[in-house]
Specification:
This protein has about 550 residues and is of the alpha/beta class. About 35% of the residues lie in helices and about 15% in strands. The two termini are about 50 Å apart. The chain binds thiamine diphosphate and magnesium ion (MG).
Length: about 550
């Protein structure tokens, strides 16, 4: 049982007068969150955060209670990914804050701005009491950009600092600890003139810093086989039009990272595939055979394979090349769209690649991801193509982590920016289902489908009760192979038996019904087509148990 101070509100008691008052810490935080455009806080209740939940409600922000804090944090991350705004999650002290850790790390490594707020025991006991008390600053330090305590006297500055830090390049999670007694206390005066003085969260004008001696574009002008590698900073800078312009003007194929899918149109003649997903060798061969890689907002956090190509790299990003995963003699640092626009304006050469050459590369890539496909079976790549064919324009897809993600990341043709939500920084299982729910909440007009493994689905399956409770018609396709396939394949490669990687199947149709969702089982391409027909127009959540034959994966990875 949570220990509470005599002054803290007990569960079930009426909200304190000050919970909705504009000057309380709770109201101030709710005011800032609202001003930042956020309309959903994802979390799990606890006594130490009741005041904030009430202040959020008062401010017109919906408190979405997930089944547990870890998935609430994934929801906050996915909401931020889909909306391009900060995400907010909420947990109580102790077991609430420890449960949120994975999601905080996920947001930070996926470079997604998330404000993670946790309650804490009241300040008079915080320094010595032990029941349910963990040191948040130390716990969150390695996985958040910043971990701060929200005290009444400095609340305004600390909230501004938290929001500004979360969205600043590279974005990530910021954790705020609020002691249970601090919420109703009037916040100190705002040095910014308050009551809510939201700092700018996006650049209004762009500039370019150049690092390295001599002309930074000499290498690009001299290159005959350059390739663009576009990553998540290009997505954050909405650099799609500039990427298209440069690709067309200079005739340069564009490879994208998984989390940047949709930044560059995937039906474009210069689209050259997704890095480190199915058929990855074909993409790496393209990069190895290039004479220059123009890394446009590419973040090495997305690398699954080691960087082994010797091709020179021109680093073009919002941040200097501090990772040094690849060396680059020149760096163009600033707003990725602006830099690409500048590079295109400088271009005067002939197109370097013919469209037909890029088409031939795509054909090789397609052959690679089709490898191992068995006619007459429900192959993993069939599930992705059938789901994609059934998806209306504007569909948002989420994935989980495992072999199915590696397949979907390549095979799903992205509709546009922020339409593909793939966790590829921390790569934590259990993301796909909560992410789909959050995406549907913040993008209610867009159909949402989740492509998840049976292992990852089992981690977050009960969140589907939240989807049905909120009347959210998300569709979840479970790649049911009775296996933690990605790990089992590794065991197989090492010559070991499948220890702890086989799972007994679950009757997902019955499970769906128990959660007031529709459930369908499909074990053939035709069955899956039927199950997914018209999913974009559904009014109830749907869980599809896609009984796949995982044999194709063996030919893939
Ligand atoms: C939280 C978490 N635990 C463990 C892993 C390691 N891991 C990566 S893929 C994978 C297997 C996933 O199995 P499943 O969800 O069934 O997907 P499949 O590979 O079968 O498509 C595991 C265990 C992880 N990425 N995240
Ligand atoms: Mg599986």
């Amino acid at each position: 049982m949570t220990q509470l101070p005599a002054s803290a509100p007990a569960e079930g008691s009426p909200p304190p007068e000050s919970a909705g008052h504009p000057e309380s810490v709770a109201a101030l935080l709710a005011g800032y969150v609202h001003a930042a455009g956020v309309r959903h806080v994802f979390g799990y209740p606890g006594e130490s955060v009741i005041d904030f939940m009430e202040a959020a409600r008062h401010r017109g922000i919906e408190m979405v209670s997930a089944v547990r804090e870890g998935t609430a944090a994934f929801m906050a991350e996915a909401a931020a990914m889909a909306a391009g705004l900060p995400g907010v999650c909420l947990s109580t002290l102790g077991p609430g804050s420890t449960a949120v850790l994975n999601g905080v790390a996920s947001a930070t490594l996926d470079r997604v701005p998330v404000l993670a707020v946790s309650g804490q025991i009241e300040s008079s006991r915080e320094q010595f009491f032990t029941h349910q008390v963990v040191d948040h600053d130390r716990m969150f330090a390695p996985v958040a950009k910043l971990a701060l305590r929200l005290d009444p006297a400095s609340a305004d500055t600390v909230i501004r600092k938290a929001l500004r830090t979360a969205v600043a390049e590279r974005p990530g999670a910021v954790h705020l600890t609020v002691t249970a007694d601090a919420w109703p206390i009037p916040a100190g005066p705002s040095p910014a003139g308050g009551p809510v003085s939201l700092p700018p969260l996006a650049p209004a004008a762009a500039s370019v810093d150049v690092y390295g001696d001599g002309d930074p574009l000499r290498g690009l002008r001299a290159a005959r086989r350059p390739v663009i590698l576009a990553g998540i900073a290009a997505l954050r800078c909405a650099a799609g039009p500039e990427l298209v312009r440069l690709a067309e003007l200079a005739g340069i194929p564009v490879v994208v990272s998984p989390m940047a899918k949709g930044t560059f149109p995937e039906d474009h003649p210069y689209f050259a595939g997704v890095l480190d997903m199915a058929g990855h060798r074909v993409v790496w061969d393209l990069l190895a055979g290039a004479d220059l890689i123009l890394a446009a907002g590419f973040d090495p956090v997305e690398l699954i394979s080691p960087w082994e190509v010797a091709t020179p790299v021109l680093h073009l990003d919002t941040t200097p090349n501090t990772d040094q995963v690849y060396p680059s003699a020149h760096e163009l640092v600033g707003h990725v769209a602006a830099i690409l626009g500048w590079v295109a304006a400088q271009w005067s050469g002939e197109p370097r690649w013919a469209e037909a050459e890029v088409a031939a590369h795509r054909a090789r890539l397609r052959a690679a991801w089709l490898a191992g496909r068995a006619e007459g079976r429900l192959n993993p790549c069939d599930v992705v193509t059938i789901a994609r064919d059934a998806a209306p324009p504007g569909t948002i897809v989420t994935t989980d982590v495992g072999s199915h993600k590696i397949m979907a990341g390549q095979v799903w043709q992205a509709a546009g920016p922020r339409s593909v939500l793939i966790p590829n920084g921390l790569s934590a299982m259990g993301f796909g289902v909560p992410a789909a729910i959050a995406a549907k909440l913040v993008r209610p007009d867009q159909p949402v489908i989740a492509l998840v493994g049976d292992g990852g689905f089992a981690m977050a399956a009960t969140e589907m009760r939240i989807a049905s409770g909120l009347g959210l018609p998300v569709t979840v396709v479970v790649f049911a192979d009775g296996s933690l396939n990605r790990i089992e394949l590794r065991q197989q490669l090492m010559g070991y038996p499948p220890t702890a990687t086989r799972m007994d199947g679950m009757d997902l149709v019955t499970l769906a019904e128990a959660m007031d969702c529709d459930g369908v089982r499909a074990d053939s391409p035709a069955g899956l087509e039927k199950a997914l027909a018209g999913f974009g127009a559904r009014t109830r959540p749907l869980i599809v148990e896609a009984r796949i034959d995982p044999a194709q994966y063996e030919a893939q990875f």
